[in-house]
Amino acid sequence: MSTSSTGGGDIDPAVLKELTRLRDSIDNIDAAIVHMLAERFKATQQVGHLKAEHRLPPADPAREARQIARLRALAEDARLDPAFAEKFLNFIIAEVIRHHERIAEDSAAKTAPAS
Fold it and tell me: For residue 103, which of 54, 68, 37, 34 has the smallest C-alpha distance?
């Protein structure tokens, strides 16, 4: 039985089967993450339009701080590195704010009086 990790040799069929099973699971989880992010961004787009309509700022630092604290606690409970969870959420928040700024700019351009 050869268990080459270089990919150049024969792999034990039982190991290959388990590796395939685990990778299939990872692929399914990745697909679920993408779909969940798409749903999240649909909701944040609605928030962006509501904020633009009522001239609210694109960012809400107090809410962001609460969300980061909440996500860090969830990460700890799930035995996920809280620092990683915070970085991930900060990345998402930055993208949401960018979308909200664009929505606000588009909204302002539509409502600006013609010169």
Answer: 54
Q: How many CA atoms lie within 13 A of 39 on its CB side?
A: 6
C-alpha–C-alpha distance, residues 42 and 35, integer Å: 11
- 54-64 in b/e form (b: 16+ CB < 10 A) is eeeebebeeeb
Residue whose C-alpha is closest to residue 71's, from 90, 97, 43, 58: 90
* pLDDT tens digits, 23-68: 999 999 999 999 999 999 999 999 999 999 999 999 999 999 999 9
pTM (2 d.p.): 0.79
CA distance 49 to 106: 10
